[in-house]
Amino acid sequence: MLPITPDELKTCPVFRGLSEPDFRQLVVCMSRRYLAHSGMILFENEVDSDAAYVIQSGVLVAEMPVDGGVAVEMAKMGPGAVVGELCLIKGGPRSLRVKAVSETHLIRIDREKFADLRSAKNAAAYTVIRNICLTMCDRLRKSNEFIERELRHETPMAADFTSVSEDTLADRARSYLSKLFGRGS
Amino acid sequence: MDANRLRFVDALEEFTDRELELLASVMHVRQYVGGEHVFRKGDRASACYIVLAGGIEVIVPGATDEGNTVATLTAGRMFGEIALVDGGLRSANCRAATGGAELCLLGRNEFDQIFNANNAFAFKLLDLIGERVVENVRRAAGELLSVVLKERSQGL
C-alpha cells in the first residue's frame, strides 16, 4: 500500500494550517480504504463511529434506510469531502448509512489512534479539532436559522430559495442537512 | 472572580484546580436583572457565558415582540460559545429570567488568546467547545432528518 503523503490532504479544510512535520505525526492514524463498486457500504447508520474519511476520488451517498422501503437519500459527497469528522471530537452512533455510488478511494482516519494523539496533547491533532470546530460553527448557524425560522415558526426563508421555490420543506431541510455536513453547494 | 464558583460547573469538571484558577483570572462576574438582555440576535459575539445563579431565557425573535422561548438555561450551563469560535453573529436573544441572573463572562480577547495558544489549557478548552459543537450539530442534523423522513412517510 502506498504511503499517505501531505500533498494528498493539503487542500482539505480539516488539515489547513498544518506543516509537513505535523502531517507526519497525523499519518499514524491514517490508512487507505477502497470501495470497488457502486453499492458497497462504507458504514451503516446507528453503528458506533470508528473513523472519519477523506474522499480522494469517486462519489459516496449518505442515506437513511427505511424499513421495507427504498432508502431516503440525504446527500452526495465527492472528492475532497470529509465524512464523519465529528467522531474525531466525540464518539457516537452514525446518523446515516454511507455507501459508494462509484469506485471510491478514501483515506481513513482512525478515531482511537487520533484520540491517542489528543491524549498526548499533540498540537497537530488539536489543529484538526480547531479546524473542525471553526467549519462546523459556521454551518451550524445556517442550519439553526433555518430550523428556527422554518420549522418552529413556519416562515419561509424565501431569499435563500428564490430559484427553487417549488421545493418542499423536506427538500430545503435536506439541502441544509447536506450543507451542515459540508456536502452541499 | 473566585475559582471556587467554577467548581460546580459540569462542563468544567475535567479542569484541574490550577486550570480553573487560570480561567477564573480572565473571567468577570456580572449581574442581570429580570428581563435584561445579555445579547440580541445579530449582535457581534463579544463573550461566552456560564450561568452562576438564576436563569437565562433563549428567545428566537418571531412574528410577535415576545418571540419564542426555546430554552431556559440554569446554573452551571455554558452558552454563547458558538458565535465566539468563528466570529459570527448571535443567532438568538438571551435575557435574564424573571428572577434575574448572575453570569461569568469570558471576553473575546481572552477567549482568542486561549483558543489560539498551543498549550494544554487551550487544548482542554478546545475539547470542551468541540464537544458542545458536536452536540449541537447532531441535534440540528436530527431535526433536519426528522423533517425529511416525516414528509417521506406522508408520501409527499
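qc> The longest helix of chain B spans residues 120-153.
qc> done
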